[in-house]
Specification:
362 residues, Rossmann fold, 5 strands, transferase
Length: 362
C-alpha cells in the first residue's frame, strides 16, 4: 500500500515516513513541497494521502484540490495534519474530501491506529470495486449470450420462412440490409440500427400461413385472395408477439406495421404519420424497393431508376418523407447492396450449373 506523505517541515516529514513504514505492508512516497507533488502527476501512484495543512504556496486543501482534478485520484482517501483547531479550517478540509485529521504534534500510537484503519478501509473498497467490476462483466456476458440466442432464433425463423422459396430468404436479407442503411442515414442510434437489421427479416414471417397456391400464383390475386394475403401482417405479429426478447418485440412491431401508409390508407390498422412505428416506416420503403426491383411470379422486375422514381414520388403519401429523404441519400450504398446480391446469385447459379452431372454419351 503506497501512502503519499507531504510536509514542508523536514523533521516532520522524516517522522511521518518512519511511522508509515511501521504500518503493515505500507511504504511512504514522500515530498517536501506541493510543487514536487504536482510535477509528478499524473504518473504518481498512491493509495492514501497524508498532507500537512499549512504549507507555503499551496496549503493542503489547495494541493489536494489540484490532485483530484485527475480522475485516477478521485477516490483516494486523504488525511490532513494540522496544528490549527479552528473549525473553519476543518470544514475546508472536509469539503475538499478529507476522511480524517491528525493534530500536531502527531501521536505515534494514534497515527498508526488511524492509518491502519484507513488502509483496511481502502483495501475493502478496492475489493468491493473488484467485485462490482466482476459482477458487471458477468452481467455483460449473460446479456451477450442472451443476445446471441435471440439472433439465432431470428435466423432460424428466417430460414424456416424461406424454406420453400430460396428467393424469399434472400429478399428478407436484402430488406434488412436496406433498412439498416436507411436508419444509419437518418442518424439513428447504433443499437437501433443493429436491432433493425436483425429484426427486419421477420417482416413477412406471417406468409408461412398463406397457401402455396396463392404465394406462387402467376398473375393478379383475386380480391378475396388479396384480403387473405393482407392478413400475413397480423399472423406475423401474433407469431412474434408477447416475447420477452426485445428483438422479437421489434420484429413483431415491424411485421404488423410495414404495410401501413403515411397517409393512413395502408393495412391492417390504417395507421397514419408518426402513429406508424419508425421501424415499420423504414422497412416499408426497403420492402417496396426490393419487391419492385426483383422478379415475382406475378410481375417482371422494374428497373432501378423506375423504382427510385416511384418511391421518391410517393413521399408524403405512401411513405414517410423523412425516411424517403434518407433513402435518397443512401442510394449509392443501397445500389451496391443490390448489385452485390445479384452477383452472388449469378455466381451461385454458375456453380450449381457446373456441378450438374453430365448426360450419358451415346
Amino acid at each position: 500500500m503506497r501512502i503519499l506523505v507531504v510536509d514542508d517541515n523536514n523533521t516532520n516529514l522524516k517522522l511521518l515516513v518512519r511511522l508509515v513504514k511501521k504500518v503493515e505492508n505500507c511504504e511512504a512516497v514522500a515530498f517536501s513541497t506541493p510543487d514536487e507533488v504536482l510535477s509528478a502527476l499524473p504518473d504518481l501512484d498512491f493509495d492514501v494521502a497524508i498532507i500537512d495543512y499549512q504549507m507555503p504556496v499551496y496549503n493542503g486543501v489547495e494541493l489536494f484540490t489540484e490532485i483530484v482534478r485527475f480522475e485516477k485520484y478521485a477516490n483516494v482517501p486523504v488525511v490532513f495534519i494540522t496544528a490549527d483547531k479552528d473549525m473553519t479550517t476543518r470544514m475546508a478540509a472536509l469539503n475538499a474530501g478529507a476522511i480524517d485529521f491528525l493534530t500536531k504534534p502527531v501521536n505515534p500510537v494514534e497515527f498508526q491506529v488511524r492509518i491502519h484503519n484507513i488502509v483496511n478501509l481502502t483495501i475493502a473498497r478496492r475489493q468491493l470495486a473488484d467485485q462490482a467490476e466482476w459482477l458487471r462483466n458477468e452481467v455483460e456476458k449473460a446479456v451477450q449470450e442472451l443476445r446471441l440466442r435471440e439472433q439465432e432464433i431470428i435466423e432460424r425463423l428466417t430460414l424456416a420462412a424461406g424454406y420453400k422459396d430460396p428467393e424469399t430468404a434472400r429478399h428478407t436479407l436484402r430488406v434488412a440490409a436496406y433498412s439498416e442503411t436507411i436508419a444509419r442515414e437518418m442518424g439513428l442510434s447504433e443499437q437501433f440500427c443493429t436491432d433493425l437489421r436483425l429484426a427486419a427479416p421477420m417482416h413477412d414471417i406471417g406468409k408461412v400461413a398463406m397457401p402455396d397456391t396463392m404465394m406462387l400464383k402467376q398473375g393478379k390475386l383475386t380480391e378475396s385472395e388479396f384480403r387473405q394475403m393482407q392478413s400475413h401482417t397480423e399472423v406475423g405479429a401474433n407469431i412474434l408477439a408477447r416475447s420477452h426478447s426485445s428483438l422479437l418485440q421489434l420484429a413483431s412491431e415491424i411485421a404488423i406495421s410495414h404495410h401501413e401508409r403515411w397517409d393512413g390508407q395502408g393495412y391492417p390498422n390504417r395507421l397514419a404519420g408518426e402513429a406508424i412505428p419508425l421501424a415499420g416506416r423504414i422497412v416499408c420503403i426497403a420492402d417496396n424497393f426490393d419487391a419492385l426491383t426483383t422478379e415475382r411470379p406475378y410481375k417482371p422486375a422494374w428497373s432501378y431508376e423506375r423504382t427510385v422514381e416511384h418511391i421518391l414520388g410517393r413521399a408524403g403519401s405512401q411513405f414517410d418523407p423523412a425516411c424517403v429523404a434518407a433513402f435518397e441519400k443512401s442510394l449509392p450504398k443501397i445500389r451496391t447492396i443490390m448489385e452485390n446480391d445479384r452477383r452472388e446469385q449469378a455466381e451461385e447459379a454458375a456453380l450449381s450449373a457446373g456441378s450438374q452431372p453430365l448426360g450419358k454419351i451415346a
